[in-house]
Amino acid sequence: MTTGSKRPGPRAYFLITLFALLLVLFPFLFWYYTWFGRPLTARDLDQYFADKSKPRHAQHALVQLSDHLARHENVSRWYPNVVEQASSPSLELRETAAWVMGQDPKYAPFHDALLRLIHDPEPMVRRNAAPALAAFGDPAARPELAVMLQPYTVPAPIAGKLKYRLKLGDYVNPGTLVGHIEDAEVRAAVPGEVRALDRESGDTVKPGDPLVELSPDPNHVWEALRALYLVGETPDLEFVQRYTHPVPGMPEKIERQAELTAEAIPKRAAH
Fold first, then answer.
1. Phi/psi of residue 10, each to 5°?
2. Cα distances (Å, whole numbers) of residue 136 to 8, 107, 112, 117, 132
3. Could you report the per-residue pLDDT of 95-149, keeping only the tens digit for each?
4. Strand, helix or coil at 196?
5. String of DSSP letters for 102-120
6. Domain of 118: which CATH number?
7. Can you point out the beta strands (E) in the chain?
8. Digit-coded pLDDT (tens) for 20-53
9. In terms of residue numbers, what domain contains 172?
10. 171 strand-pairing partners
């Protein structure tokens, strides 16, 4: 005698369906609340800037203001919030605020904040502040713009035995793990292609020793050349002219912009 298999009851089907729904819903909600492209209302912007517990909310609001400014919309109501974020302990907020402030070079408090950010300890903040300052016509941006056109060296932050986690030709972004010194992580502060490993894995290094040489990032070169078109001076030609001919890894628009910048600097100096 055979016994029939017991089929799942309605409760089991409900639980299975609920579980399947959650598998779809959770990733969607995570994407929805973290994607910076999600439009924010004016009320959302007010709430996001006021929410000090979630820095990503303020960053989302800054990105939205940047989009509005790109469409030439008036968002000056939130300018004091942008200036406030420029003093945030969060690297991402200072970095994003610097970029936003370059999109309205008529607002004097932005200029004042950028003059502080151009001396920020973090390279990515300085690199966003420099083109923004150039939009104000301020030559204080020039030293950092010249740095953006040159290779970047990742230094050893502490002393100890080094172990690399990357190789020649790898492309890194800010935050990419370069290696370890003892138990401490060493991460890249700026983007670029690994051109040279200045030590060997297993070497003992001292603070400040060069570890990795990164090539200039094409986007940073592009922004620096455009900014130097506005504020560059004769000493900057040395760096600009490196890009007036084809450079491996650089798009064609870099060469053309370098030519325009190299022509503009002497003309402005003559006046």
1. -55, -35
2. 70, 9, 11, 14, 7
3. 999 999 999 999 999 999 999 999 999 999 999 999 999 999 999 999 999 999 9
4. strand
5. TT-TT-HHHHHHHHHHTT-
6. 1.25.10.10
7. 152-155, 160-164, 171-172, 177-181, 184-187, 192-197, 204-205, 210-214
8. 554 544 443 333 444 455 788 999 999 999 998 8
9. 152-214
10. 193
Choose the final residue of a domain: 136, 171, 193: 136
* pTM score, whole prediction: 0.84
Contacts of 41 (CB under 8 A, 6+ apart): none
Q: Are residues 158 and 188 in the same domain?
A: yes
Distance of CA 162 to the CA centre of its chain: 27
Does residue 107 form part of some domain? yes
Mean pLDDT across the chain, nearest whole number? 90
Side chain identity, residue 6: K
Nearest Cα residue to 104 out of 75, 130, 127: 75
Q: Are residues 43 and 132 in the same domain?
A: yes
Give the total number of structural domains in the chain: 2
Domain CATH number, residue 210: 2.40.50.100
